[in-house]
């Protein structure tokens, strides 16, 4: 009888500790790693991993699968990119706790903040819950291709305590704050990993109103944090604009002090304030020196919109002539737009209208920071490759060039417009943030921004770009694996995963690093009610295991769904 369920032989093991890679075997029994080294016993299944990297499964701490996890067993695109655990409920938005009369407000908020179609949410959410515990029970009933963990969102707490007064962003009374604190603590005790909130002006409902938690008083947040702390577990997460860095860190310090719990905050390089991120990093260092466990979640690359006829946005989206054919299927739009007469008409209308903005303030006339996605997506393009620069060299207008790019490949082509982390025309700022002592990789927003942004592939970018392809300032593979696997897991209290060592959960990736590559994003219409979403796949993931069960082989589904709901913090399990 085999001694093990699985033995992975002769792989280059990068175990998540940050130690140097080594050639070793990995043995698994009952969903747990039981030996790493020279394994003598045989496995019921044996995999020859010679020449491949063997690493822990990736832990993505910043996703928005709160709705998709209700209706779908596959957390794609994340599960295509070696992710074996996702944490959702970030940025203060989610769907529990909820009274029936507040459901619509939570849908409108998620649709606006995270660009998830309201029609899909209405169709896909079964609302078999009101309390957070009931929401977790709903999640628990569906097997998945990875593990999911939830956090309790501030917006849902505010609606639960204040009703429509929350939508008006009125100050909470002492009694209302007490209700929010009680509900937060109940959610943590039932299995929420933490509490999340938002302090950014960019988070608005689909109706354009600010998120109900924007401008919440510090006393309210501190009281909720203290209630979380009294449970003895849980983490805190927030996003802010850093308009006043001193004030923001004073609040975060208060929340950590009141709760005794760790906190993470989102950090990017803003185009309008390109050096602000360095100031935030300095504050992070000082806060940790002073004993406050505060880390920043940072992105693996520039964050930006994908523009195209298939997408929510493109440079002609408000053009009165284009809008006359916008109801047609994308391929037919592209075919019509190939007619020189219609092109001339659309371009004349574009010139007359002087398009600068679309609803929400997202500028789509910045041709100097727009780049064509060709056969291979380039997330660090040179300025001379921008549409504006290319058009100038060709003696054309950028509108003319972008028009031709949009109708390529029957309208399936896309233009990339980075709006954060690219103020310098390169990713040097991202490299500085990723390498800092008090940051974590995050912000992929898996499950969100489904028709305009596709960043669930961040883990693959960390490997492909930062450890292999970048021509300068690369990061060591053991460092990146430690950050994306072990440190992310520990940061949210999941001590049972992120390492390839005896007693740890057998979430494992076997990766062909030489052939690892991101593919271009594509569009599917497979959300509930036929909703549209952007997806991005990768090549090079040979095998992905969740709890010792293979979920993907060469990027294709095996049919196995071993992923489960993770209730609360987890401790290391003993191997067999």
Walk me through what this model shows.
The protein is of the alpha/beta class and 576 residues long. It has three domains: 4-55 and 505-557, Urease, subunit C, domain 1, CATH 2.30.40; 59-302 and 422-491, Alpha-Beta Barrel (TIM Barrel), CATH 3.20.20.140; 306-417, no CATH class. The chain has 18 helices and 25 strands. Helix 5 (154-162) crosses helix 7 (174-190), helix 14 crosses helix 15 and helix 17 packs antiparallel against helix 18. The relative contact order is 0.17. The model has no long low-confidence stretch (mean pLDDT 94). This is Amidohydrolase. Keywords: Hydrolase. GO terms for molecular function: hydrolase activity, acting on carbon-nitrogen (but not peptide) bonds, in cyclic amides. It comes from Pseudofrankia asymbiotica. Residues 45-551 form the Amidohydrolase domain.
Helix content: 25-40%
**Beta-strand percentage?**
15-25%
Morphology call: globular
Indicate how many domains the architecture comprises: 3
Mean pLDDT: 94
Structural class: alpha/beta
User: Which oligomerization state do the chains in this entry correspond to?
Assistant: single chain
Second-tier CATH architecture of the largest domain: Alpha-Beta Barrel
The CATH H-level homologous superfamily of the largest domain: Metal-dependent hydrolases
Q: What's the CATH class of the largest domain, please?
A: Alpha Beta
The major beta sheet can be summarized as:
9 strands, mixed
CATH topology of the largest domain: TIM Barrel
Give Rg in angstroms: 24 Å
Domain Amidohydrolase: 45-551
Keywords: Hydrolase
GO molecular function: hydrolase activity, acting on carbon-nitrogen (but not peptide) bonds, in cyclic amides
Protein name: Amidohydrolase
